[in-house]
Amino acid sequence: SSTLVIAEPSSSSSELSPATLAAITAASCFSHPISLLAFSPPSAVPSSVSTVLTVDSENNDNKGTSMLAETVSNAVVKANQEHGYSHVVCAGTKFGANYLGRVGALLGVSPVSDVVEVISEDTFLRPLYAGNALAKVISNDSPKLISIRPTSFEKSTPDNTSPTLTPLSQVPSNNLTSWLHESVSSSERPDLSSASVVISGGRGMKSGENFALLEKLADKLGGAVGASRAAVDAGFVPNEYQVGQTGKVVAPNLYIAVGISGAIQHLSGMKDSKTIVAINKDGEAPIFSVADYGLVADLFEAVPELTEKV
Amino acid sequence: MKILVPIKRVIDYAIKIRVDPSKGAHAVQTANVKMSMNPFCEIAVEEAIRIKDANKNKEDEIVAVSIGPKQCSETIRTALAMGADRGIHIETKPDVRGDYIDLQPWGIAKLLKGVVGREENVDLVLLGKQSIDSDCGQTGPLLAGFLNAPQATFASKVTKEDDGSFVVERETDGGTETIKLLPSDGPAVITCDLRLNTPRYPTMPNIMKAKKKPVETISLEDMVKELGLDLDDVLKPHNQVVEVYEPPPRKEGEFVGSVDELVAKLKEKGVIG
Q1: Over the stretch A113-156, which tens digit does the pLDDT of each residue have?
Q2: Domain B2-246: assigned CATH number
Q3: Residue A57, pLDDT score
Q4: What residues of chain A lie within 8 A of the CB of B240, using their CB?
Q5: How distant is the Cα of B214 from the closest Cα of chain A, in angstroms?
Q6: B187-221 core/surface letters (b: 16 or more CB in 10 A; e: else)
Q7: N or C: less crowded end of chain B, CB within 10 Å?
Q8: Partners of residue A68 in chain B, C-beta under 8 Å
């Protein structure tokens, strides 16, 4: 038995992304040798990784952070043909979710999405209804094809600085789609999905301009800025800020919810955060039911004061 | 141009689900709960209508497909009232659960592949990026894989080109990217994300008109037979759900009286320096 982990694109092409390092931790639960499929050769990998498979440049439409689902799927199928894995693991990011189903169809196996706990070789825990229920699931297919929720697994340490690279040759080329261009957010702040501190604003922020208050606090704490769906729907901030069932699921060390009442779909996206602070002028707001520390106050006074005092 | 839009009936997104742990895999209670069209499926229906309107060809047709119990016919009527032309309801027995417990994306995608073949000349399949009950996000990419079709997930902008290709801006982890789905023998498969559009509310006259639009109802068993599929492969979950339960509640928090007290508590807990 052996496990294949598919690497995510990374902001630095030679470093493995945090989501990939979490996927390697999840793959280690199977206690089998781990191969890593990478589209750009990593300079260091965790010592649990025994082989690094790299994809030929001629079959590699890797431009910036982009790789098409068809290209990734063809490479995974080829790797599995050559090596026959018992488990195939990827990160449950947008990148992973893009090809997970396609790979399943090509391998003839039904994938398990967003695993939050590996219980055994074939049994996994995954959320339903945006995490309001958890399902224990037995996969009857082979290989077991799973995506893991990156925030549910520790990141492994890339301590092997001279991994052996094995090229994967003759991957069928993708003639179904072509890549045109990308638009990458150029924020100085950390990425919302992986930030250790997240400050989110809701409809109580009253306008997009007022999010500057949250940015100041975020910059002081080295955090990212997020928003509730209500704030996105009101047009205050773009959708990539959205935390929730229909946006990003985050689990930082510290989550500060400002002017957010706490609709179910928002709570689903942040309730696994380690420490939650809620600031809202309505003491009855549902957000307080998940908060470790609740402050009933006018956010326009409390947030600047907090920014000054942290 | 023919656009197929698979739609799913789910527990309404604003409802807090009830979980009864004594019911094993059937713990999530679905009786007497408000059900609606999955919000991402509404976006798919809306986008199909916009693409059809922009294409200005009277021959164009939008076919809404739903797989599930009797009540899915209401979900199909909603899609027809929004502007879809025709419906196909693949009806399951009342006790078959669509929220991952029985029917799973694998079986749904197998059926949809069959429907694509049965319909002939489908140019585009538009789906939601995920359903809000099982949250798998697999049906679109599975279908694309089964069809060996070009795919785009998490679409935030879709444009049909004159050569039959679709240019799609899609959301990525770091922003967006724009890709082209090249013309192929089969349809293109696109899954819709939140930013793509804002679905319309059906108007009263359109709700009345929708009652006259054709809907074909066929049992799942008959459809499986007609398509030459294996009933077990479609209906028996590849991923067997053995237990469903609520996550443990968070430890009860406390109210603080001032920003100073908040800062003190956070420092004490070591959350901030």
Answers
A1: 999 999 999 999 999 998 889 999 999 999 999 999 988 999 99
A2: 3.40.50.620
A3: 52
A4: 137-140
A5: 32
A6: bbbbbbbbbbbebeebeeeeeeebeebebeeeebe
A7: C
A8: 179
What whole-number distance in Å separates Cα of residue B46 and Cα of residue B50?
6
Mean pLDDT for chain A overall: 92
In the chain, the amino acid numbered A208 is: G
Alpha carbons A211 and A227: distance in angstroms, whole number: 9
Q: Do domains A3-168 and A197-309 have the same CATH topology?
A: yes
- Confirm if A8 and A17 have CB atoms less than 8 A apart: yes
Domain residues of chain B, as ranges?
2-246
> What average pLDDT does this structure show over B152-180?
93
d(CA A264, CA B20): 18
**Nearest chain B residue to A181, by CA:** B178
Enumerate the residues of chain A whose CB falls inside 8 A of the CB of residue B137: 97, 100-101, 113
Closest B-chain CA to A287: B253
> For residue B134, which residues of chain A lie inside 8 Å, CB to CB?
128
Residue type, A10: S
User: Does the structural domain A197-309 have CATH classification 3.40.50.1220?
Assistant: yes
Size of interface A-B (CB pairs under 8 A): 263
Query: By the CB < 8 Å criterion, does B229 face chain A?
Result: no
B17 lies within 8 A of chain A by CB: yes
pLDDT at A16 over 70: yes
Q: What is the ipTM of this complex?
A: 0.95
Q: Is B248 on the interface with A (CB under 8 A)?
A: no
DSSP string, A118-181: E-SSSEEEEEEGGGTEEEEEEE-SSSEEEEE-GGGSPPPP--BSSPPEEEE--PPP--SEEEEE
Residue of A nearest to B172 (CA): A94
Taking CB atoms and an 8 Å limit, are B106 and A110 in contact across chains?
yes
**CA A112 to CA A109: how far, in whole Å?**
10
CATH topology of domain A3-168: Rossmann fold (3.40.50)
Chain B residue at shortest CA distance from A145: B239
